[in-house]
Amino acid sequence: MWSLGLTLIEFVMGRYPYPPETYSNVFAQLQAIVHGDPPTLPRGYSPAADDFVAACLRRIPEHRPTYAQLLQHPFLLAPEIESVDMRAWVAAALAKRAASSSTSSSAPTSSTVSSPASSSSSKAPAPPVTISAPPP
User: Fold this and answer.
1) Predicted pLDDT at 9
2) Which of 29, 41, 113, 122 is most open to solvent, judged by the fewest CB atoms within 10 Å of its CB?
3) What are phi and psi of 71, to 5 degrees?
4) What are the residues facing 110 on neighbouring strands?
């Protein structure tokens, strides 16, 4: 579970979520993991996403959910409830990124794209999703 939570955070941040001084020293990494607070998602993600990652990163393994419990988590079930056109969302994200890079001299570090929820849904639109490019 721990590695899943850590991988999700690393994926959205585009870098390892612990301080840079721990990168080259396994003992510093262990110190940060064992004695520090677990990392969290950056601001702007849904409460369900925050809860999912926090559940994976509970310090005491017995307090973490099982795989079966995680499969029932609202973060994973939301796409089944909400119709998502992922192809359109990715196309819009890439187009926005291309437009941003053509108007600036350096590559963008992030883009915000509206969530691809179906327009036929009676729910309010989902908040925008930020896609971060990995640091150079």
Assistant:
1) 93
2) 122
3) -65, -20
4) 132
Count: domains in the chain: 2
Weakly modelled stretches of the chain, pLDDT under 50: 106-125, 130, 132-136
Q: Which of 27, 29, 71, 34 lies closest to 52, judged by CA?
A: 71
Evaluate whether 23 touches 16 at the Cβ level (below 8 Å). Answer: yes
Q: Which residues have a Cβ under 8 Å from the Cβ of 78 and sit 6 or more positions away?
A: 46, 48
Q: What is the pLDDT of residue 50?
A: 94
- For the chain, the residue count is 136
What confidence score (pLDDT) does residue 113 get? Answer: 47
Pair (76, 114) in one structural domain = no
For residue 67, give both structure tokens.
Answer: 């795989």
The count of other CB atoms within 10 Å of the CB of residue 17 is 19
Contacts of 79 (CB under 8 A, 6+ apart): none
Residues 36 and 59 in one domain: yes
**Whether 18 and 54 share a structural domain:** yes
Cα(100)–Cα(74) distance, rounded to whole angstroms? 33
